[in-house]
Amino acid sequence: MFNAEIKSEPFRNTIEVLSVLVQEAKIKLAPHGISSIAVDPANIAMVSLALAKDAFDSFEATDGEIGIDLVKLNRIMEMAGKDDVIKLDLDENAHKLDIQMHGLAYTMALLDPSSIRKEPKVPILDLPAHIVIRGDDFKRAVKAADKVGDYINIGVKGDTFFMEANGDTDEVQMELTKDQLIDITPGDAKSMFSLNYLQDVSKTAGKVDQITLDVGKDYPMNIKFAFAEGHGQAVYMLAPRVDSGP
């Protein structure tokens, strides 16, 4: 059983957190909210998402799992106004999700959860450097780096956080000191990441007031942030590109 009402903006943001990496997702239903874990087809990036029942205007659910075509759902949500309330009702017998908004009523066929890629195990990493940065600063650095190269180095030097990219002829660097960041826990950290993935992640992470980056030396990076007025939590884990050198 699942029926709920939620404002369109937090629901759209929830879908986007997943859909920047995958086109299909398993959504776990529970009395306390919904959640999902997914990995992109290339095994480079993983996303973990949880949206508590308090993010909804009304929420009722029993434990279960549904498969969602995120491409279809995004297209439906394009019709929603910013202040519309989205009504969701699961038809378990027909394996469909009824979606209502401002006079429109959709019936969307659900996917068989067993046909969707198996949920990965989330590795536990003890990364040495922790940076709390404004979402728009992160997005600006990624956008600048994308203009000169395909990869970006992210790390910490002393109390300074840096993001830098080098192309064939050009380079760009952003450095933010402790006073320019929201917070920093220094540590030995420098890793290289694909800008293709960071561009996608920054579409969602760049919208929030602050994000937390957990970084190590040639280790995956965790990108964490809250949304939906703190009732939603998203974590991206991005694998590094290890440069073997000459």
Which SSEs are present, and which pair or pack?
Blueprint: E1 2-7, H1 8-19, E2 24-30, E3 33-39, E4 45-52, E5 58-61, E6 64-69, H2 70-77, E7 85-91, E8 96-101, E9 104-109, E10 129-134, H3 135-146, E11 151-157, E12 160-166, E13 171-176, E14 183-185, E15 189-194, H4 195-205, E16 210-215, E17 221-227, E18 232-238
Antiparallel strand pairs: 1-5, 1-7, 2-3, 2-6, 3-4, 4-18, 7-8, 8-9, 10-14, 10-16, 11-12, 11-15, 12-13, 16-17, 17-18
Strand order of the largest sheet: 6-2-3-4-18-17-16-10-14
The radius of gyration is: 19 Å
| CATH topology descriptor of the largest domain | Proliferating Cell Nuclear Antigen
User: Taking all residues together, what is the mean pLDDT?
Assistant: 94
Main CATH class of the largest domain: Alpha Beta
Structural class estimated from helices and strands: alpha+beta
For the biggest sheet, the summary is: 9 strands, antiparallel
Name of the CATH architecture of the largest domain: Box
Q: What portion of residues is helical?
A: 10-25%
Overall number of structural domains:
2
Q: What's the total count of β strands? A: 18
Compute the number of helices. Answer: 4
Which runs of at least 5 residues are low in confidence (pLDDT < 50)? none
Shape: elongated
Give the strand content.
Answer: over 45%
Written as H for each helix and E for each strand, in order along the chain, the element string is EHEEEEEHEEEEHEEEEEHEEE
Distance between the termini: 58 Å
